[in-house]
């Protein structure tokens, strides 16, 4: 029998202990990242090893199997965090962080993911709050333009990196209200510290300004001039519109979008210089206005031919095909530019799933549309032609064909063979894509940013 009161004192940050999963579905090895007391009761912020960080949560001692408590391993060094642009670089792992899991493992083995990650209501957790930015705190003033003050660049140095890592590893915003949705954040985002202690952070769904109470939001909405994102509407079909926003011209909107996106993006660092980026916001229109469904950012000039920096579908709209609509849109822009493109790496687990699915379906669509010639000869197509037709970079075409196991060596040459089953799966998958981008509805000309001096 474990004496809870005694063992409680032995639970320190960095301990490893099995924790009962939220749906009661067995125990999972976990690491204690932080500890807090609320009304005399201890709560422990834990990371489920091998699972994505979005599942991390505060748990009471009762959810822990204390008979298997392990003290932290000593002598672990913390690497220095790297810096980057909007979605440009990786947040380094803390020295004790578990390795990231493969998408398959996380999605298929962890049945709780949907309820945890995508819930739009859920029980609220009380949070003592944490400040990732110390002296760089911003003051919230809903009636002034204080929200547009960019945060100062981060300091470097291992102590700061270590401090930032511990802080940014933990979710800091409890819940957001966004339009008609209440959404539980997945990751840390550098909203001002005083807002992270609130049970709900209110965000105007049109201008993305953040507010501390429902009353403030109400007052704000009465005078908010936006009913859609700023910038040019470059696409409209049925209820779907896409707006192009210049990160220099609409800096405040772009910064607010980055803050919001960071709540659901783990591995990208936000930097508040949005000037070098364009943002493509996909909205669904109704009588009230244009509701943000998702967006992607794109560098104005990319030496590596990246056509997407960050991509996000707002959680209430996820798993409905919008991710692929956004990806399709990014490739339609590349087609107009007469370029091939690829998303910026690293991809998140869900990003990889979505891109793999889009690439597979798009390439299979091309292959199945190849008609035999008059003499009934089998159609011939090169990797280069597939890449030109789709704007998907050659490396991604090759990796997709390999992933689908379509390339075979036959009589001295490589051929692509499709089984009947693959053809049927593809037909079913295409039938399930209700929204497709119609290139005729895209009204857009690329700009030559190299000729514009400093954007
Ligand atoms: N579990 C299992 N499969 C999933 C999940 C999930 N939670 N979410 C999406 N998928 C699969 C879908 O089943 C679909 O596959 P299928 O065609 O084989 O059925 C595929 O991924 C795409 O689904 P969509 O509905 O088109 O995509 P969605 O609207 O859900 O958006 C996105 C995908 C943008 C990655 C979304 O999950 C998201 O915003 N995640 C958080 C931010 C993120 O990780 N962005 C990508 C970072 S990488 C980068 O920015 C370049
Ligand atoms: Zn507003």
From TrEMBL:
GO terms for molecular function: chromatin binding; histone H4K16 acetyltransferase activity; zinc ion binding. GO terms for cellular component: NuA4 histone acetyltransferase complex; nucleus. Residues 79-103, 136-157 are annotated as: Disordered. The active site is at residue 344. It is an enzyme of class 2 (transferase). Gene3D superfamilies: 2.30.30.140, 3.40.630.30, N-acetyl transferase-like, Winged helix-like DNA-binding domain superfamily/Winged helix DNA-binding domain. It is found in: Nucleus. Its EC number is 2.3.1.48. One of its GO terms (biological process) is regulation of DNA-templated transcription. Keywords: Acetylation, Acyltransferase, DNA damage, DNA repair, Metal-binding, Nucleus, Transcription, Transcription regulation, Transferase, Zinc, Zinc-finger. Residues 168-446 form the MYST-type HAT domain. Belongs to the MYST (SAS/MOZ) family. PANTHER family: HISTONE ACETYLTRANSFERASE, HISTONE ACETYLTRANSFERASE KAT5. This is histone acetyltransferase. It comes from Elysia crispata.
